[in-house]
Amino acid sequence: MPVSDKIRRQLAGIPNVTVCEGPPLSQYTRFGIGGPADLYLETASEVSFAQAFEVARASGSAYTVIGDGTNLIVSDTGFAGIVLRFTGAAIEVDGTIVRSAAGAELQDLVDRCVAGGLRGLETMTGIPGSVGAAVYGNAGAYGHSIQERVRQVRFLNNGKICVFQNADCEFRYRESIFKRHKDWVVVSAELSMDGAPAEDLRKIADDIFKIRLEKYPSDMKCAGSIFKNLLVAELPDTVRRQIPERVVREGKVASAYFLEQVGAKGMQNGGIRVADYHANLIYNTGRGTARELCQVIQELKGRVEGTFGITLEEEVQYVGFSGAGCSS
Q: Domain 5-86 carries which CATH code?
């Protein structure tokens, strides 16, 4: 259902909300890919966002919520509906307790903790995206994930702010309950940190950031790793027996291992390419399309399934596709 003029006026009339008609969503994604949204709005006000979300939900039009777009694949045709974004970015520190609005950059939160001598997020330096998205997808790196530090999460549900404690969030590897409830929108998180010398944390963060920049240059149009790593315990015995011990870390085997075995490195389709040095890094050379990107993803999934009998699962989220994943 198209976004009616009445709904457009309602949304534009909400205080502290910026509304744009027909913006290309490519400008809101790290891939630099995606057609226009019928309507895009953003606000840093929690109250205004809640109002706008309820208007969108009751409108009868399609709607979706995005963060920084670092983990999104948007259809070439865009999104026929309303795209909402919460940009509130306040970060408050009270001893070892840190409260962050969902729209804050994860890197800003990491830097604030490191500078304040608060240990727990330094291994996540260089991970792009917002705090809300990090909670949503249980982001992490180097054997740690944000779930280890989350005390509680505030989220929007049916027009009301609800609070979940850590256990309620049902965190798993790159998963949370919020992924299964698309109408729940994370608005802030409270984290519990440990005290540590700031200079030690800075050294850890700087070393990790240097490594990350070598893999994922800041100007590279990509979403980092496309596929989730796999838990060894969940793999079939026939597959486990084929995996060299050297590639198993903390009970997981990198998807890149399986992708390397099926010749992913250097694969190219139009403007989309798999890195020569990292089989789980797919990027836009500058002229790629969502169609080409989805073709590469489906081809790689098919190769791995055909060779190993396992299905790789994407970390990325899809917007503007009528079916699951890349289906259109």
A: 3.30.43.10
Q: Respond yes or no: is residue 188 known to be catalytic.
A: no
Summarised one tens digit per residue, pLDDT across range 154-185 is 999 988 999 999 999 999 999 999 999 989 99
- The class that CATH gives domain 218-319 is alpha beta
Active-site entry in 119, 225, 255, 273: 225
Strand, coil or helix: 255? helix
Residues 279, 311, 274: CA angle, nearest 5 degrees: 20
Distant-in-sequence, close-in-space partners of 297: CB < 8 Å, separation ≥ 6:
226, 282, 314, 325, 326
Domain boundaries, the chain: 5-86, 91-196, 218-319
- Residue 81 gets the label, from left (phi > 0), alpha (psi -120 to 50) or beta, of left
Model confidence pLDDT, tens digit, residues 268-309: 999 999 999 999 999 999 999 999 999 999 999 999 999 999
Please give the CATH number for the structural domain made up of 91-196: 3.30.465.10
Out of 8, 174, 202, 291, the active site residue is: 174
Is residue 315 part of the annotated active site? The answer reads: yes
Q: Is 225 among the catalytic positions? A: yes
Structure tokens at 321: 């596709």
Alpha-carbon distance of 51 to 23, in angstroms, equals 22
pLDDT at position 111 is: 98
